[in-house]
Amino acid sequence: MAVVIRAVRETDRPLYRAPCGACATCDVRTMAVCAALADDEVEALESIMTATHLQANEMLVQEGDPRSKVFTLTSGMLRLSVGLPDGRRQITGFLLPGDYLGLADDEIYTASAEAVGAAALCAFPVRQMDALVERFPKLKDRLHRFTRAALRQARENQLILGRLAPVEKLASFLVLLSDRAVEHRLPASPVSLPMPRADIADYLGLTVETVSRSFTKLRNQGLVAMPDPHSIEICDRRALAAVAGLPPH
Fold it and tell me: Topology of 163-244 in CATH?
């Protein structure tokens, strides 16, 4: 099934200035970049922040566009993708609440970012954010931590794509997504999969049919259960990690 992408220019999207004190009550305050700042310092971040809301499949930024803003995802999920020479897309990752978008980019966005479902973000102009980073060294240290996490996730992506068997790729994807959920203070199981199977296929370099067969194999082996298409219960994490070739912890 084709995924319909709704492209909206940044200037067309309604932006909302966050009310004073919004960061203090934000659900991802302790996980996001703003966790580096004390309550009396975070007002400086709020002063440059605008709230952005996306509908399902709405594009936030497009690969190759000038990098004008950086973002913190506060709810929902984003898919990151790059275009291939033959017109296809390669999904390179999924962002969870608390994740930061735009850190690895320079003058342009190196990947497109679209909402999987309804999503909300905090947007910060690049120049003003750079000034705050220089003003608050703790903020710079926090961004360095995010950079290290992004590098780790890139290695995990290579690990997944390097698996030979489709079922190994899917098992790796589920285990690592479960680990990321725990890092974001979400349950390790069930694993939330709001994205369609086509997204998972484009991420793993497989066909949708192969992804579906791999889910069935894992379920038949008693490693996972599928209460609904967007929720995967991990029944035997140790065995699932063994299929993935990952440590059992």
Answer: Arc Repressor Mutant, subunit A (1.10.10)
